[in-house]
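Run: sequence + coenzyme A -> complex structure.
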Amino acid sequence: MEIRSTTEEDLDVFVDTIHAAFGHFPDTPTEGGGGLWWSALEMDRGLLALTADGRPIGTAAAYSFELTLPGENLVPAAGVTAVGVLPSHRRRGVLSAMMRHQLAELRARGEFVSVLLASEATIYGRFGYGPATYTARLTVPRHRAALAVPRARGAADAPATGSDSASDSASVKGSLNDSVSASVNDSDNGSIELLRRAECGEILEEVYDRYRRAQPGALSRPHRWWALRAGQPPISPAPRYVAVHRDPDGVPDGYAGYSIESGTLTVDETIATDDAVFTALARFVLGHDLVSQVVFKHVLPDHPLRRQLADFRAGEVSGDTDWLWVRLLDVPRALTARGWFVDGELVLDVKDPFLGEHGRYLLTVRDGKADCVPTNREPDLSLDVSDLGSIYLGGTAPSTLVRAGHIRAHHPGAATLADTLFRAERSPHCLHWF
Ligand SMILES: CC(C)(COP(=O)(O)OP(=O)(O)OC[C@H]1O[C@@H](n2cnc3c(N)ncnc32)[C@H](O)[C@@H]1OP(=O)(O)O)[C@@H](O)C(=O)NCCC(=O)NCCS
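>> structure
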């Protein structure tokens, strides 16, 4: 078997092979846009596995993303994608060989973190990836969608509530073609404009970019994707309505892209540059007429919206699952790249079985910055690099992995200290599908 890098000329054979691995046909239309999707591949970052006589049997590729780390630190991250091996050649080590080849290539490019979305959760742990962000679906029946008065606010500036549904606070006027403007609620001086997906691509791109820079775990969406509309909705050409929120100066600062079918309003993604904007958008979709329920497809499992509902049980969380998996390729570089929020010191003994590496590091955090150097000191925690990937963005508590028997805490208090240190300013979340 040979593994080689691809060029633009390999696109057809690459796409053909990955389709065969997934059991699809290249011309099957998909919601994401079929062939368009593949045109966004960076073919200089692809790999093909070939038999000794040159037949393609496996593929892997990577996108050049920017990942937001805790502390709003932006770093390059390889987004591993299009991984597949022909059913006729599985369980013979083809994927393992491609993963080894790819990790060496990423390192050679100077990248220190790679990320992926896993088709099955049993595949990538052995290659050093750990689940690091989580997402869920939140379903709210419209007749139970009233929002509570926020207790931290005085009654005077609380939004209008006490109504049976969330609809009362967002009055919609005009026709769609005129772009509907609505005052969102008493505490929100912004407005919502209703647009069609096809006419607001630039606004979405701009707002998404602002949002992702401040959201740990978020990935950049390269301009090429937006221009090609080569992703999942709402980037894709699939028709969507989009509620675009604007601040009092008219600057777009959030959006919710949605479709309605059989009385269910499904929001593909709600992007908001702050919590009040999210609330305004949620209020808008929850108040939609002729809708029996609203499904928020991608929210944090512990999203504050659940607590904003007057009836806590009205928000039903389902499909709680892993999303972004993280793999560190250079532990000291990765740990010094993120922001930290509490001072402290921790000795981490990190094993990387797939690459046959082992290092012990002293992590010292002062004033939001970390130093990470090799040490011979006794460790506080012993862990696999995949577990370090899981806790890196602050979305998995080290103590959870200690309790699960994956991380070893060498003394009482080590897990609590690690929990405090690794926490991010907010739960990491990634909405991007790749
Ligand atoms: C997943 C896939 C790429 C694995 O390729 P492969 O060449 O068979 O993998 P390897 O032979 O290198 O397997 C390496 C190890 O992973 C295990 N493994 C591989 N695929 C696995 C799976 N789907 N579930 C559980 N374990 C798996 C193997 O048993 C082997 O374990 P071992 O080291 O203990 O012997 C291949 O099955 C495939 O193309 N599946 C369909 C497409 C897909 O899901 N791609 C991933 C997209 S994120």
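>> summary
The pocket of coenzyme A is lined by residues 21-22, 83-85, 90-96, 118-120, 122-123, 126 (CB under 6 Å). The mean pLDDT is 91.
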